[in-house]
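On clarity, I found the account of how folds are encoded harder to follow than it need be. For illustration, here is how one protein appears when written out as sequence plus structure tokens:

:::
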Amino acid sequence: MLETIIILYSIYTFVKIYIGVMQIGYINQEKRKIPVLMSAEKYLVAGNYAVANGKLELVSTFVDYFMFVWWVFTGFAWLSSVVQVDGTILQAVLFLFGFIGVNYIVGLPFELYQKFKIDEDFGFNKMTPKMFIVDTLKSALLFVIIGGAIFALLAWIISSFESWWLWGFASMFTVAVLANVLMPTFMGLFNKFTPIEEGELKEEISKLMEQVGLKNDGIFIMDASKRDGKLNAFFGGLGKSKRVVLFDTLTEKLNTKELLAVIGHELGHFTHGDIWKNIGLMGLLLFIAFYLFGHLPDALFLEMGVSPSAGVQIAMLMLLLPLLSFVFTPFMSAVSRHNEYAADEFGSEMGGKENLVSALMKLVTENKSFPKSHPLVIFFYYTHPPVLERLKELGFDASNTIVGEEEELPSDGIFSFVDKE
């Protein structure tokens, strides 16, 4: 059984590496061709940024593979010998803290290199080492409190129920749903949320929300710029009461009409029930994962030199979950891309097609997102359609569009739109 799992994980790793290598080669070729959406200089920078991230991801994938092999052949047995305490639940929690801790330490150099080397070189990172340490300590405290409680709950379920995988799925699915609702609250520990000033933007956002039957639970500006320069926004809450959070980087770069078109896109997701669809897909994946990994034979754990204790079973689930997720990724990505097209159409109707086009083009430029990717990357990983395809679906041909270094993107009816085929 262990040999089979090693083979499957090896295939999974090989496919990931192959896709990564193809992406790097593709972008290295495309970045030297005629630029689209950006000036030649920005186009090359965006390509270099994508390649740098791709190379780091390749190295990280290799390390993840070796860590997987180490855990199943040696790591679990070693950690079990270190964690020797009385009590099934306490032992499981401490074992999982050790498992997560070792993985975090191994992955820390990659996180630091990403943030303080790659993002720093390309002008994204605004975080200081002090801020990073403070954020890490806050995250660690939250993990010990919340993660410890979740691990304890799962360990209790495993030790108390014959069909623990079913009750484990139900509990983790509930936790995942609650996490979506409480996310803005937890983010408040790391960022400052300032209520948006009275004015046209606040009034227009409230009007858009009312049109789709939502109640405004607050519109806030988040000080995202103190950590990086990327643009984003999100909604919080699962019911009809929604909290709107706009990154300050977003409000600085987009005008009111463009912001409203972006909000209209997000409201399209709500109107189409995409949030519940995503939750349903996540629930399906969790159910399959708990079912499969909840039926792993005891012989497998004996091959690894450990007993099938609660901590080891949970760690094994966490170790194998990326493999299962990868199998489902193309399907989930395809569904998500379909939803994004529909949300774009909705957003263009609410906020104006030209405004949404203008906003998308600015987002790509400011986030240094290379507008092209290898088809395999799109098939597996793209939850959003490529921006060129999104613009084409909106009726705008961006294949020959270049935005100069100092040129402002047009947003007042001077775009040239074409009929979709």
